[in-house]
Amino acid sequence: MKLKTLMGVSSALCLSAIIAQAQSATASKRSVDGETNLSVQLQQMQEKFEKQNQELREKFEQTLAAQQAQIDALKKQVATAPANLPAIATNIADAMPPLPARTGWTPSQPITVARAGSSYMNMSFDTLMVAGGSSQRDPSQFINLGDHDPSKNGFSLRNAEISLDGAVDPYFKGFANIVLKLDNDNQTSIELEEAYLLSTALPANLQVKAGQFFANFGRVNPQHPHQWAFVDQPIIIGRAFGPDGLRSIGAQGSWLVPVPFFTELTLGVLDGQGGTSHSFRNQG
């Protein structure tokens, strides 16, 4: 009985020793595996760091080389600048957009007598003197119906015009035309041909004119004698609108139509009586 008990105790001790040894071996293996995994991770991190460091070093060297190349090119340009200045100036001139051609002053342009910012006043003076001959003693009764046409055989000073225009304010401009003329007996007369205001700041391409002005009817009627394409006024204008053309006191509105070609719609209301309204309520 004692022998069996002793063998049982010995077997239990041996089994406990085997289990303890197995547990110790398992713990040792786990420790080794953990250290191995940590070493692999550290190695991977080190390799990644070295790769990034290498890439940064290469980018820095490339940037430094590019900057050095630019510096060398600038030094070369500075060294050769005196010899290349004409070519550089030519290249710059070719690259710039062309400037509008500047023309000198001509007698048909007004002279600016005052200017302050956007305000200004222009003044001009022109004279129309003509010479002609006809078999008729008084050519003005048959063909030359315009008040500024040749009115007799020989020389005639039919129009000496003073023109004034200027900016009244940011919204209106003012225009005036004063005409002096000599009749067949060389007697001087004077008339206020035009005096009106013209708007400059209305929206939607609109414009308003008010005062004494030539009616915007046809191509010739609004023009002054110095703007005519011919020496005398067309016969139809003289017969329809009289010697002075159709002009009177009133108001006019116009709209510039937004199309690719010039198109303007005009509506005017003028006083229909007097010598400058020849085909309307003219008492003469």
Structure description:
The chain has helices at residues 2-95, 235-241; strands spanning 111-116, 119-132, 154-169, 172-182, 188-199, 206-214, 247-256, 264-270. It has 284 residues and is α+β, with helices and mostly antiparallel strands. A hairpin with a 6-residue loop joins strand 5 and strand 6.
Can you give me a brief rundown of this structure?
The protein is α+β, with helices and mostly antiparallel strands and 284 residues long. The protein has an 8-stranded antiparallel beta sheet with strand order 1-2-3-4-5-6-7-8, with no helix packed on it.
Strand count, sense and barrel status of the largest sheet are: 8 strands, antiparallel
Mean pLDDT: 78
The low-confidence parts are none
Which value, in Å, is the CA radius of gyration?
51 Å
Q: What is the N-to-C order of secondary-structure elements (H for helix, E for strand)? A: HEEEEEEHEE
The strand order across the widest sheet is 1-2-3-4-5-6-7-8
DSSP strand content: 25-35%
